Amino acid sequence: MNDERMMTINDEVFPRNMKYIDSPKLLYYLSDKNINLNEYKKVAIVGARDASKYARDTAYKISYELAKRGIMIVSGMAMGVDSAAHKGALDAGGVTAAVLGSGLNCCYPKCNEGLMKEIRKSGIVISEYERNTPPLKKNFPARNRIISGLSDFVLVVEAKARSGSLITARIALDYGIDVGAIPANIYNRWATGSNLLIRDGAYPILETRDILELL
């Protein structure tokens, strides 16, 4: 892709919240529209790649309902919860932002190339990495700080006890951003992390209205 654009920390369109965190000084992005991230309330919806149907359906529904109300959905374009969240926003005719752990020329996972094209049509695809940077493992924890820093609220839908979603949640808490989680069966080991977040003080989110009241 040779049509990527960039925004620097000194530009008016650079996300305001990110100027006060451990932020990159430069972001690369793809968008077919002139998206100003500062014009939206933003909710990050993250969770397991190998998510259950319950988690995928929940992410889709909440994303859809938030996007219908003009809220931008932020996620990482991974399989599972992330993809469901992006699709919910797109199907609602809303706006979604995908933050990559690779350069904009390296769609990861590869099977989400079609989704990435749809996101850039009405939303924005963002990376701090130069265009041909591969999706190295070390990039993703760093990517998660951007997902948190962009957002006004972070929702963890389903996460294991050790997962990238919990990194995103902990970074958000460090930044003073509210975090919520979807309650799940206590015997579901794929949701141990999200249940622990609630035990440790995250908001239990039972419906979309719970998030709207916190924004």
Structural account:
It is a single chain. The chain has helices spanning 53-68, 81-91, 113-122, 139-150, 164-174, 192-199, 208-212; strands at residues 5-8, 26-30, 42-46, 72-75, 96-99, 124-127, 153-156, 178-181, 203-204. The protein is an alpha/beta fold and 215 residues long. It has a nine-stranded mixed sheet with strand order 1-2-6-5-4-3-7-8-9, sandwiched between helices. Helix 6 (192-199) links the parallel strand 8 and strand 9 (203-204). Helix 1 (53-68) packs parallel to helix 2 (81-91) and helix 2 (81-91) packs across helix 3 (113-122). The model has no long low-confidence stretch (mean pLDDT 94).
Keywords:
215 residues, 9 strands, globular
Secondary structure blueprint with pairings:
Layout: E1 5-8, E2 26-30, E3 42-46, H1 53-68, E4 72-75, H2 81-91, E5 96-99, H3 113-122, E6 124-127, H4 139-150, E7 153-156, H5 164-174, E8 178-181, H6 192-199, E9 203-204, H7 208-212
Parallel strand pairs: 3-4, 3-7, 4-5, 5-6, 7-8, 8-9
Antiparallel strand pairs: 1-2, 2-6
Question: Short summary of the structure?
Answer:
The protein has 215 residues and is of the alpha/beta class.
Question: How would you state the average pLDDT, rounded?
Answer: 94
Instruction: Name the shape in a single word.
Output: globular
List low-pLDDT spans.
none
Strand order of the largest sheet: 1-2-6-5-4-3-7-8-9
Structural class: alpha/beta
The total count of helices amounts to 7
SSE succession: EEEHEHEHEHEHEHEH
Cα separation of the termini: 36 Å
Largest sheet, if any? 9 strands, mixed
SS strand fraction: 15-25%
Rg result: 16 Å
Report helical residue fraction. Answer: 25-40%
Question: How many β-strand runs?
Answer: 9
